[in-house]
């Protein structure tokens, strides 16, 4: 897949609008407004439309009409999830129900650990579970250019047990990560995107060769912390299903060749679980850029 440019759609005004709507007009009204936003994006967000159409038409082999209508449904679910995310993080979690599958594995992270997710579903709801575990969660972000958005959300989240770690070119974020692990905290990040210059490994994903970053897995090995692959998907209007895998311990080897093999094996486990979730919830794919290069399909 081509590297991600490190940018996230949207601005402060959009976040403020939906937060105000949720607080004073309700989540249902926010969903209603979303219909107009989605319709506009379907016809005006050409790059995202092209990438999403390729996903439905080529990767999933949908027919032309099914692919088109799936794009609209995908955008609408994505918008709902953004609204839900803000609602949950700003104190409206009582409006939602959750099914936590694998919670017992996270309770085993007594001295901290790493959660790796992907741009499928709504992984931020993991914070709702982590509050129950009395663990502080640090969310790693790659879109440093849009810290103005995160800064606004930080004010909204100041009473929540959530902290952002921004990836920076000077690598100062590594000190923050190390400090978090030393305090026994949880770090959560995505493992399905990379930016130019990141080390990657090519693995089969959905029947196609895709490059995945090795960095997230390497963090678990470098800091000797257990890792769980987690995904949270929307199953009904106000219900989410959270999945967490058994803890995976990634050995750190000083032998470079052995280390690369260990990291690739751990990454393959992540990719396998990622594909399993995506095939079960195909409409909740939220990578709106050219994730797959038009390469030859591999055997399923």
Helix content: 40-55%
Outline the biggest β-sheet. Answer: 7 strands, mixed
**What average pLDDT do the residues reach?**
83
Distance between the termini: 18 Å
Q: How many domains, in number, for the residues? A: 1
- Tally of alpha and pi helices: 10
The total strand number stands at: 9
The helix-strand sequence is HHHHEHEHEHEHEEEHEEH
Order the strands across the largest sheet as they lie in space: 1-9-8-2-5-3-4
Regions with little confidence, pLDDT below 50 for 5+ residues:
3-8, 295-300
Category by helix and strand content = alpha/beta
Portion in strands: 15-25%
Which shape, going by the Cα principal axes?
globular
Rg: 19 Å
Provide a descriptive summary of the structure in words.
This protein is α/β, with parallel strands linked by helices and 300 residues long. The protein has one domain. It contains ten helices and nine strands. It has a seven-stranded mixed sheet, with helices on both faces. It has a two-stranded antiparallel ribbon with strand order 6-7. α1 (12-24) runs antiparallel to α2. The chain is globular. The two termini are 18 Å apart.
């Amino acid at each position: 897949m081509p590297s991600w440019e490190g940018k996230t759609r949207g601005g402060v005004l959009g976040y403020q609008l939906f937060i105000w709507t949720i607080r004073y007009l309700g989540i249902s009204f926010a969903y209603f407004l979303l219909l107009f936003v989605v319709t506009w994006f379907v016809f005006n967000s050409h790059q995202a439309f092209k990438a999403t159409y390729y996903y439905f038409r080529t990767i999933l082999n949908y027919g032309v009409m099914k692919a088109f209508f799936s794009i609209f449904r995908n955008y609408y679910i994505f918008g709902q999830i953004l609204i839900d995310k803000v609602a949950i993080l700003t104190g409206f979690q009582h409006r939602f129900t959750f099914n936590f599958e694998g919670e017992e594995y996270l309770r085993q992270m007594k001295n901290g650990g790493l959660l790796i997710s992907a741009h499928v579903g709504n992984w931020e709801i993991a914070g709702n579970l982590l509050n129950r575990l009395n663990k502080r969660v640090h969310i790693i972000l790659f879109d440093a250019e849009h810290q103005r958005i995160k800064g606004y959300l930080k004010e909204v989240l100041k009473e929540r047990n959530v902290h952002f770690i921004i990836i920076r070119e000077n690598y100062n974020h590594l000190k923050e990560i190390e400090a978090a692990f030393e305090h026994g905290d949880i770090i959560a990040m995505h493992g399905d995107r990379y930016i130019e210059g990141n080390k990657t490994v090519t693995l089969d994903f959905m029947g196609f060769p895709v490059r995945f970053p090795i960095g997230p897995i390497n963090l678990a090995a470098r800091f000797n912390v257990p890792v769980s692959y987690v995904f949270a998907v929307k199953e009904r209007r106000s219900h989410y299903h959270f999945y967490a895998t058994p803890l995976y311990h990634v050995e750190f080897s000083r032998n470079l060749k052995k280390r690369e093999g260990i990291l690739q094996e751990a990454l393959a486990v992540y990719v396998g679980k990622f594909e399993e979730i995506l095939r079960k919830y195909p409409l909740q794919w939220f990578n709106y850029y050219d994730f797959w290069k038009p390469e030859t399909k591999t055997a399923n």
